[in-house]
Amino acid sequence: MSQILTLTMPKWGLSMTEGRVDTWLRQEGDEINTGDEILDVETDKINGTVEAPFSGTLRRLVAQPDETLPVGALLAVVVQGEADEAEIDAVVQRFQAEFVAAEGSEQATGPVPQKADVGGRLLRWFELGEGGTPLVLVHGFAGDLNNWLFNHPALAAERRVIALDLPGHGESAKALQRGDLDELSQAVLALLDHLDIPRAHLAGHSMGGAVCLNLARLAPQRVASLGLVASVGLGETINGQYLQSFVAAANRNALKAPMTQLFADPGLVTRQMLEDMLRFKRLEGVQQALEQLSAALAEGDRQRHDLRAVLGQHPALVLWGSEDAIIPASHSDGLDAEVLLVPGAGHMVQMEAAEQVNQRLAEFLRKH
Amino acid sequence: MARKISYQQAINEALAQEMRRDSTVFIIGEDVAGGAGAPGEDDAWGGVLGVTKGLYHQFPGRVLDAPLSEIGYVGAAVGAATQGLRPVCELMFVDFAGCCLDQILNQAAKFRYMFGGKAVTPLVMRTMYGAGLRAAAQHSQMLTSLWTHIPGLKVVCPATPYDAKGLLIQAIRDNDPVIFCEHKLLYSMQGEVPEEVYTVPFGEANFVRDGDDITLVTYGRMVHVALEAANNLARQGIDCEVLDLRTTSPLDEDSILESVEKTGRLVVIDEANPRCSMATDISALVAQKAFAALKGPIEMVTAPHTPVPFSDALEDLYIPDAAKIEAAVRKVIEGTRSAA
């Protein structure tokens, strides 16, 4: 039996209310598969690619390039099986007649992050999905839970997924005590305790990967598996000049160069992304936290922590962008882990190649 | 996402957070506590528009209503600042500047210089400016350029709730006298503001829109009018860069010059009267330091050289609007097409 499906404007992150259609990457009549990249969309925060949530024939491109549409608006019609033009017209007409944009009521639409005193400090985390062994997503240096905005909803289709703001980051408390890896790993453990999670899958990006590895070292029984994305702790070198210039940057121009190094495609660094990072850096306590952590992670171009010995005790998947300018992708060589090297992606591989990362990580988690 | 609050609430929150952090911070002004001492919140207005509402009860003894004598309470605030306190005094309308100008011009602004750097005057004077409220010629002026003219003062003019909070905290922590200018029509504007404490540095302009064809430099409420014009012009294929100065003293010359060197065209938008204003100041700066980059004459969009009219129709004509900015931009673009 045939089915007529609608592809709609996604919601990336909590503040997205609308997106601008940039370019269609596929044409009317194309056969598409789940996960295929269908079109590029720009928002005031971020530029991204909409992936097919289902397979079928792309029969009607409704949204036009340069058109700005609210979250949930109709982008395209996909047909599984057969349908004639009149049937598609009817679906489009009905959708447009019934569609109401969730205007100005961001608070009311869907789940929101939570905050609580966890182990003596304020932590913020965001939960999506339910069931299964939970997955905890741990962002990297100077990141926050929004670093997973292209991954979190997709991974939450199959299990409970919790993304947190590490201490010193996002909307969690900024003051660090020792300001080292142990303190961050202990904070993640405290959150697991707070949420009564005995055992979780952990996935970490960059510094967050080292936080996960270190947690597996401190409390191996709490860890079901490790997903390590462009992770710290798996080799000897790191781009020390990046860390220094990022920490020192106090204005937009100074921040632009290091932020651009994070991505293989510099066009992904938007004005708003720079502004948001500046806003983070201006918060009281952030500068000190970043200085403490950068000193804890590296001395010049040398990493301070070698956590490769932790591998082997838990199932592990290592993901890397081949064009990573912060931590070389060659660190993925010879590890006791599954490895996916994503060609053409930079350090923020989970954003730049979200679909590949999501598919491989979901597949890995299903096995363990 | 960060929570949204109004410009007015952002100012109130900055005051409360700094008063909590630093016991030397206090507020003085006309009606800042409000009421006649009767019990209950209802009687404490918190200023003529309620910006300091609630602080009187939260900080007993540190929100002081002054008699209607600017020369008296502004002078008292300047004196307190020299003696180790951090006063935030409120000049209800900037139009009343004449009643306390000596205290600012000849005292606060001069102490650091005349005492050989041995005296600091960490004073903030919050003040309301701007036309559009049908408040006539003595309650509607924009005198930012008057303060900017005086060496020894820092002058701040936030355009958004986010900047209002961060710049006010910066102002309170600054060791020099700061004139903090708030537009009446911005008080109800909503925007994302972190609950946490943060500062926005002085002398760092904000690129609120990136563009390649022409630079629009402005500050205060006109930032939003310039953005409206830029969005209209974008539909006609003209790509404006919009720069919000945030502070007029210190002035972020580098960002202005960097932008004009990229676009080669400049329109300066200022709600103030045109003579000896920020508009002329920035035009002079660019003519002097980026003349070679300019493809054609600089345009200024300002109020006319008249008092603010009381008539609704005339006041609407007086205030620069998006249509006037768009006309100025088109004039510059059309005049420089061959140079493009």
Describe the structure in your own words.
The complex is a heterodimer of chains A (368) and B (340). By secondary structure, chain A is α/β, with parallel strands linked by helices. Chain A has helices at 85-98, 152-155, 181-194, 207-218, 240-248, 252-261, 271-282, 286-297, 349-352, 354-367, and strands spanning 3-8, 18-24, 31-32, 37-42, 47-51, 56-61, 68-70, 74-80, 114-118, 121-128, 135-138, 161-164, 200-205, 223-229, 298-299, 302-303, 316-321, 338-342. In chain A, the strands form four sheets. Chain A has an eight-stranded mixed β-sheet, sandwiched between helices. In chain A, strands 1-8-6-3 form a four-stranded antiparallel β-sheet, covered by helices on one side. In chain A, strands 5-4-2-7 form a four-stranded antiparallel β-sheet, with no helix packed on it. Chain A is globular, with a radius of gyration of 21 Å. Chain B folds into two domains: 4-192, Thiamin diphosphate (ThDP)-binding fold, Pyr/PP domains (Rossmann fold), CATH 3.40.50; 206-339, Rossmann fold, CATH 3.40.50. Chain B is α/β, with parallel strands linked by helices. Chain B is globular, with a radius of gyration of 20 Å. In chain B, helix 1 packs parallel to helix 7 (161-173) and helix 8 (222-234) crosses helix 12. Chain B is built from twelve helices and 14 strands. In chain B, the strands form three sheets. Chain B has a seven-stranded mixed β-sheet with strand order 3-2-4-5-7-6-12, with helices on both faces. The mean pLDDT of chain B is 94. Chain B has helices at residues 7-21, 55-58, 70-82, 101-108, 111-114, 144-148, 161-173, 222-234, 253-263, 278-289, 312-318, 322-335; strands at 4-6, 25-29, 63-65, 86-93, 124-129, 154-156, 178-183, 190-192, 206-209, 214-218, 240-244, 247-249, 266-270, 299-302. The chains are: A alpha/beta (368), B alpha/beta (340). The A-B interface holds A 13-15, 106, 171, 174, 250-253, 271, 275, 279, 282-284 and B 1, 162, 166, 192, 194, 196-201, 204, 206-207, 209-210, 258.
